[in-house]
């Protein structure tokens, strides 16, 4: 079990959260808190870089959905960047690839 | 310290201080009599030959009452006397020394005096035992401390027993609740063989998988199987809501996509945005037409159903694009249709099966392995298939750490 | 587990002659006989053992139901006699083991040919005109006394009993603590000893019997010695000039010579 770390910063397009480690029921609330803390305003994009994300179970999915709901309610958007293969498969299987904006790398965010 | 070596003995040596000199004047006799512990010497038969004032004071006895008249064991309570005869005296004889024995003495005033007794044997020049020297410490405080410890230990034992009983009761209650989320038995349907199985990962935690199967009318039967997010009581509540919502919806409307939409709306209404609760589910209806079953099923984010054909093949029924139920108001659900002929079997399962960890690398069991497993057994009746998968789950051992539900629906091969 | 290991059986003394089995009572173990042993060893093969639960016996063989009645202890004695194939042996039982000897002699006729009872009492509690010397409350008090000593005194011994090597300084002293017994086992033995009633069994004795009592013994007073003497047909009673309940320790010579005199008087 790798501890979860979330590094928050800002880019011209909006806030960036770099999420690393394992995401499960014991720490999923941290992700929600970080998203709420990364103030997003209408028209901006919250970018979550999941390149270093390890294990992610259904509580992790729940947290991602909650983050999305929060961002959408604020009139902003959510982009998931560098989603690991296992999570990508899970998102496809559950139809959530239609809900989340999945992109390969950071560079796209500035487009 | 050597007082003679000091330059100014009057000022620096302790011997010059009044307190120290009075200590030097303290006679051995006075020390014996008024020591802060009891002293006692007895002959080998226990007769008391010498006793100090401290002990006499504790016992409320006069020297004349005791010396030459009483034995050591006479000073003890009856229980203490028995203990003395069976343990203390023999040990002292054999070892020549015995320390820290807890006994109780009888005082003239009535109350008992808890004491700790240490004895040594004094021997003559030829090694013959001559007399027994005994020191007695007042152990009143210590004894009450010990009794407090004993009481605490008994209380802890009782609490542990109670906790174990509560735990057993809780386990029983959880098992009853868990069973209430599943059908007791699957209905007997002419020309259809069905089988279900539920694996519980933990007896102390309610699982979040569910399935059901019930006739709608003479020819049509509804079924569903799914997995709610999370575990424990909240997951069980969600399971209950899901199961009964789906059941009511399917009785009302035999279109599986509509039924999943109704469930989606119910979950969205019940749970808020920042506490999303969702499930994956497959819901379907099959209809008997001649000796075949025509099946319509819809999936919301659930792993694809598997069909075992009578020709020995196994294939997934893709429902890709169907979305988790309870996440999005505009969620899409995908329907797929198939026909089961004699010897064909449809398998629904939850991801506990495909996500079990296997082999030395703890790899996911996965969809390919499941299809190969099924193809190797096809054609297989529902019961035989579920039994084979149950054995597989057992073989996973601790690689299987999630609840797993199985539901198979098949048309028996024509004889 | 062989009986010999289970009961920590030790065979010593002469290689020929009438075998004498020395049986310890409640409290300690076969070491109780260490002062008498050399005095009998010249003329008799000697058998010593620890009851299961006592001394260095195999504690894992202890079962509460078996050792909650004197029959269980008598079975230990009989099994030791059988294992060594003893015939016509003299069983010298201390205290409660006098009664164990009575039960064993009835159970294994031929193996046990004579009994020596050292400070026997068939019943410790007074009742219906019989004076055993104690009330039921007294026995409760002993059990309490045991309990407090297992908490205080024996708490220090527990690591040794358990074979805890962390406190070697205790080990040195306590390896000599023959009375160290698992508290639960001791409680069962104490209850069995002090609450049983063997008065009826005394009438079954058919072998020659010597009763040794002490001048002053709070556990088995002379009144009780007289009762046993009257109840066991043809028994011989010897009062030793000793105080206490353990003449084999306080008066080993007198104890040994009384036993030798009894055995050389041609009892068969």
From TrEMBL, chain A:
InterPro entries: Anti-sigma_ant, STAS_dom, STAS_dom_sf. PROSITE patterns: STAS. It comes from Streptomyces cellulosae. Gene3D superfamilies: STAS domain (3.30.750.24). Belongs to the anti-sigma-factor antagonist family. SUPFAM superfamilies: SpoIIaa-like (SSF52091). NCBIfam families: ant_ant_sig. CDD domains: STAS_anti-anti-sigma_factors (cd07043). This is Anti-sigma factor antagonist. PANTHER family: ANTI-SIGMA FACTOR ANTAGONIST TM_1081-RELATED, ANTI-SIGMA FACTOR ANTAGONIST TM_1081-RELATED-RELATED. Residues 16-111 form the STAS domain.
TrEMBL record, chain B:
Its EC number is 3.1.3.16. Residues 194-396 form the PPM-type phosphatase domain. Keywords: Coiled coil, Hydrolase. InterPro entries: Bact_Sigma-Reg, PAS, PAS-like_dom_sf, PPM-type-like_dom_sf, PPM-type_phosphatase-like_dom. Residues 24-76 form the PAS domain. SMART domains: PAS (SM00091), PP2C_SIG (SM00331). PROSITE patterns: PAS (PS50112), PPM_2 (PS51746). One of its GO terms (molecular function) is protein serine/threonine phosphatase activity. It is an enzyme of class 3 (hydrolase). Residues 142-180 form a coiled coil. Pfam families: PAS_9, SpoIIE. Gene3D superfamilies: PAS domain, PPM-type phosphatase domain. NCBIfam families: sensory_box (TIGR00229). This is PP2C family protein-serine/threonine phosphatase. It comes from Streptomyces cellulosae.
UniProtKB/TrEMBL annotation, chain C:
It holds the Pfam family Abhydrolase_6. One of its GO terms (molecular function) is hydrolase activity. The keyword Transcription regulation does not apply. InterPro entries: AB_hydrolase_1, AB_hydrolase_fold. Keywords: Hydrolase. Residues 20-257 form the AB hydrolase-1 domain. Belongs to the AB hydrolase superfamily. This is Alpha/beta fold hydrolase. It comes from Streptomyces cellulosae.
């Amino acid at each position: 079990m790798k501890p979860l770390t979330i590094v928050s910063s800002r880019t011209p397009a909006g806030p960036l959260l770099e999420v690393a480690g394992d995401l499960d029921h014991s720490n999923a609330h941290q992700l929600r808190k970080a998203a709420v803390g990364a103030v997003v305003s209408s028209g901006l994009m919250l970018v979550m870089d999941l390149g270093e994300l390890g294990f992610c179970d259904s509580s992790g999915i729940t947290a991602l959905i909650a983050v999305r709901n929060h961002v959408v309610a604020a009139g902003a958007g959510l982009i998931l960047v560098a989603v690991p293969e296992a999570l990508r498969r899970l998102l496809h299987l559950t139809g959530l690839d239609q809900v989340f904006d999945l992109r390969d790398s950071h560079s796209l965010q500035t487009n | 310290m050597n007082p003679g070596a000091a330059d100014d003995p009057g000022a620096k040596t302790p011997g010059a201080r009044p307190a120290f000199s009075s200590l030097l004047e303290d006679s051995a006799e006075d020390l014996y009599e008024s020591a802060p512990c009891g002293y006692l010497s007895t002959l080998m038969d226990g007769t008391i030959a010498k006793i100090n004032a401290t002990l006499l004071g504790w016992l409320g006895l006069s020297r004349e009452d005791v010396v030459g008249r009483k034995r050591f064991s006479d000073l003890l309570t009856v229980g203490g006397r028995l203990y003395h005869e069976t343990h203390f005296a023999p040990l002292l004889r054999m070892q020549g020394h015995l320390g820290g024995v807890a006994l109780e003495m009888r005082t003239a005033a009535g109350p008992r005096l808890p004491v700790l007794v240490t004895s040594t044997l004094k021997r003559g020049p030829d090694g013959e035992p001559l007399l027994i020297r005994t020191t007695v410490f007042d152990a009143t405080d210590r004894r009450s401390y010990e009794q407090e410890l004993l009481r605490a230990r008994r209380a802890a034992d009782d609490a542990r027993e109670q906790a174990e009983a509560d735990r057993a009761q809780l386990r029983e209650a959880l098992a009853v609740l868990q069973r209430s989320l599943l059908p007791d038995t699957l209905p007997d349907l002419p020309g259809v063989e069905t089988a279900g199985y539920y694996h519980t990962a933990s007896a102390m935690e309610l699982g979040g998988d569910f399935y059901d199967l019930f006739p709608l009318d003479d020819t049509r039967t509804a079924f569903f199987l799914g997995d709610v997010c999370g575990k424990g009581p909240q997951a069980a509540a969600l399971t209950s809501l899901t199961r009964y919502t789906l059941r009511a919806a399917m009785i009302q409307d035999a279109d599986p996509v509509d039924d999943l939409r109704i469930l989606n709306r119910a979950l969205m209404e019940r749970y808020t945005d920042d506490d999303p609760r969702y499930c994956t589910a497959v819901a379907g209806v099959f209809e008997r037409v001649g000796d075949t079953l025509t099946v319509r099923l819809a999936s919301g984010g659930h792993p694809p159903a598997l069909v075992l054909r009578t020709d020995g093949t196994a294939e997934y029924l893709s429902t890709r694009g169907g979305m988790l139920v309870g996440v999005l108001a505009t969620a899409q659900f995908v329907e797929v249709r198939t026909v089961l002929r004699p010897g064909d079997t449809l398998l629904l399962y939850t991801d506990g099966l495909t996500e079990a960890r296997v082999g030395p690398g703890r790899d996911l069991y996965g969809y390919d392995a499941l299809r190969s497993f099924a193809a190797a057994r096809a054609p297989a009746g529902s019961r035989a298939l579920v039994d084979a998968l149950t054995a597989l789950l057992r073989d996973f051992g601790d690689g299987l750490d999630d609840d797993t539900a199985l539901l198979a629906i098949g048309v028996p091969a024509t004889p | 587990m062989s009986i010999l290991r289970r009961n920590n059986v030790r065979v010593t003394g002469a290689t020929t002659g009438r075998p004498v089995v020395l049986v310890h009572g409640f409290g300690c173990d076969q070491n109780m006989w260490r002062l008498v042993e050399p005095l009998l060893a010249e003329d008799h093969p000697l058998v010593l053992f620890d009851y299961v639960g006592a001394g260095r016996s195999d504690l894992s063989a202890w079962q509460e139901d078996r050792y909650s009645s004197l029959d269980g202890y008598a079975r230990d004695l009989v099994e030791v006699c059988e294992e060594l194939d003893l015939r016509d042996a003299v069983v010298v039982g201390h205290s409660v083991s006098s009664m164990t000897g009575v039960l064993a002699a009835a159970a294994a006729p031929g193996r046990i040919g004579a009994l020596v009872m050292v400070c026997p009492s068939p019943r410790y509690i007074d009742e219906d005109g019989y004076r055993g010397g104690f009330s039921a409350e007294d026995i409760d008090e002993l059990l309490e006394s045991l309990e407090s000593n297992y908490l205080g005194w024996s708490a220090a011994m527990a690591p040794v009993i358990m074979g805890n090597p962390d406190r070697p300084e205790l080990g040195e002293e306590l390896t000599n603590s023959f009375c160290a017994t698992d508290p639960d086992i001791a409680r069962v033995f104490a209850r069995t000893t002090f609450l049983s009633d063997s008065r009826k069994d005394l009438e079954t004795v058919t072998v020659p019997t010597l009763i040794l009592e002490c001048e002053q013994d709070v556990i088995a007073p002379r009144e009780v010695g007289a009762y046993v003497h009257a109840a066991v047909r043809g028994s011989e009673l010897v009062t030793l000039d000793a105080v206490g309940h353990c003449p084999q320790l306080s008066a080993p010579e007198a104890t040994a010579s009384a036993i030798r005199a009894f055995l050389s008087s041609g009892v068969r």
